[in-house]
From TrEMBL:
Pfam families: Acetyltransf_3. SUPFAM superfamilies: Acyl-CoA N-acyltransferases (Nat). It comes from Hafnia psychrotolerans. This is GNAT family acetyltransferase. PANTHER family: GNAT FAMILY, PUTATIVE (AFU_ORTHOLOGUE AFUA_3G00765)-RELATED-RELATED, N-ACETYLTRANSFERASE DOMAIN-CONTAINING PROTEIN. Residues 7-149 form the N-acetyltransferase domain. It comes from the Bacteria.
Length: 184
């Protein structure tokens, strides 16, 4: 399943994405707010990619390779919806990470809004959440623009301070969508 948005092109991840995944997730700049730090090597990226591909096969949804519509062959980031387990909960997690050259263009917001719509309209999820570090204000702003709201702190990385859990239910999303449609 490939999707084209206003500016973005999405396709499910494939094994050949390993090198680009490592470039983006292995970059210290893209891990500024990640207490686990950058991916240590290409082997780690391949293991993560194998988990992502397996998630697609088991659940029918997962992470996409994200590129611009005009240059679908150049992956700028990865993101999607996945079932994630933390110490005390399981969530339908919205996650994304873009290469530094893609920052500051509103691509994360466009992607997040699409992923949420896809999650509620096509996958029929009851709730979508995201986990973000307390000091990552830019990502918090993206999540808020996409309609998620802060719920509580969550322990997501062992031996690290808690992160913030943002959530949106399908009912909340439907109510917001109805208000937007009626305002037009």
């Amino acid at each position: 399943m490939q999707s084209t948005l206003k500016r973005l092109h999405l396709r499910p991840v494939i094994a050949l994405d390993a090198a680009r995944l490592f470039e983006i997730y292995g970059d210290p700049a893209t891990n500024t707010f990640n207490p686990a730090g950058p991916y240590p090597d290409i082997h780690h990226a391949k293991m993560v990619l194998a988990r992502w591909i397996s998630h697609w096969e088991l659940n029918g949804f997962g992470n996409w390779a994200i590129s611009l519509r005009d240059t679908p062959e150049k992956t700028l980031g990865f993101g999607g919806l996945s079932i994630s387990h933390f110490a005390d909960i399981s969530i339908n997690n919205l996650g994304y990470r873009f290469a530094t050259e893609a920052w500051g263009n509103g691509l994360a917001t466009e992607f997040s809004q699409y992923a949420i719509k896809h999650g509620f309209d096509h996958i029929k999820l009851a709730e979508i959440s995201a986990v973000v570090r307390k000091n990552h204000l830019v990502s918090q702003k993206v999540l808020t623009k996409a309609g998620l709201r802060y719920v509580r702190e969550i322990l997501d990385v062992q031996n690290a301070p808690p992160s913030l859990l943002f959530t949106l239910t399908r009912e909340e999303w439907n109510n917001k969508s109805t208000k937007i449609t009626n305002a037009r």
